Amino acid sequence: MGFPLHRPRRTRQSDLWRRMVRETHLSLDSCIYPLFVVPGRGVRHRVESMPGISQLSVDEAVAEAREVAAAGVPAVLIFAAPAQKDAKASAALDPKGLAAQAISAIKDACPQLLVWADVCLCGSTDHGHCGHVLPNGRIDNDASVESLAQVGLNYARAGADAVAPSDMMDGRVLAMRQLLDREGFETTPIVSYAAKYASSFYGPFREAAESAPAFGDRRSYQMDPANAREALREVLQDVEEGADLVMVKPAGPYLDVIRQVRDAVHLPVVAYQVSGEYSLIKAAAERGWIDERAAALETLTGIKRAGADLIITYFAPQLAKWLAE
């Protein structure tokens, strides 16, 4: 036959051709930008391990939210690092606590911006774990679930457009759904961290959120990185319990899991490009080893191509600039 009749390069020969036949498209509409809120006023404290990211007081978080909303980012995800930390996670359970203040202030300033609220106890406990700890050091799943549901209700009352339980306790989605419905928040979506792995890529986040465990680790409740079938079990259980969106976290090392979840459910799939993924790119780019923009766009495209409908990413403000160019 001679040279093959089919030449895939025919539709790669110009930028216009490549754009026309592109299968996966990045859009700001699919991005959520995390914000880290701390006490005080006028606080903008740089997170050393996450270049470009800062801990923000509520007023500064409002200013940041205004900027990203104006750039076209549709949603933010709130993490709070209150000054008070105790075994009961009292700050998280306070209906007028730091996270609730930030939610209300951002919604008042940016009503068009969707505000998601991360629901966990780790940032408010003196031990840094995501649930209540028993005297023997084990996590009390059921007592934790009760508290987490109450925290989710507090955030809904503060105006959160979605609550996102990230603790990985068993049964927390059902408990939260039932309490929200009972209290008149049946329209508030639950974004479940359904497949959250015990990952080494969370290190920089723990500086930003001030949530490192004081002892042990989180492997008794976060997932083993070696397991994929278990992720589907977790996801399907959360769907059955009433989750409106399901999440895979981290994103980059778990593209296969994102794809399997996408094929298994009909709900929107969220992927979290976590702090370690972000900081690796930033650090390499600062040293001139890679092109930051190219690497960020490539990784985000890969996450989207794997099946994620939405991506939580620290690159969201930069992505807005890149897509506008």
Describe the structure.
With 325 residues, this protein is α/β, with parallel strands linked by helices. It has one domain (25-324): TIM Barrel (Alpha-Beta Barrel), CATH 3.20.20. The protein is built from 12 helices and 12 strands. The protein has helices at residues 15-20, 58-71, 90-93, 98-109, 141-158, 172-182, 203-209, 229-241, 255-264, 275-286, 292-306, 316-324, and strands at 31-37, 44-46, 54-56, 75-80, 114-119, 132-133, 139-140, 162-165, 191-196, 245-249, 269-272, 310-312. Strands 1, 2, 3, 4, 5, 8, 9, 10, 11 and 12 form a 10-stranded mixed β-sheet that branches. A two-stranded antiparallel sheet has the order 6-7. A hairpin with a 5-residue loop joins β6 and β7 (139-140). α2 (58-71) crosses α4 (98-109) and α4 (98-109) packs parallel to α5. The longest helix has 18 residues, at 141-158. The model has no long low-confidence stretch (mean pLDDT 95).
Strand and helix layout:
Elements: H1 15-20, E1 31-37, E2 44-46, E3 54-56, H2 58-71, E4 75-80, H3 90-93, H4 98-109, E5 114-119, E6 132-133, E7 139-140, H5 141-158, E8 162-165, H6 172-182, E9 191-196, H7 203-209, H8 229-241, E10 245-249, H9 255-264, E11 269-272, H10 275-286, H11 292-306, E12 310-312, H12 316-324
Parallel strand pairs: 1-3, 1-4, 1-12, 4-5, 5-8, 9-10, 10-11, 11-12
Antiparallel strand pairs: 2-3, 6-7
Helix pairs in contact: 2-4, 4-5, 5-6, 8-9
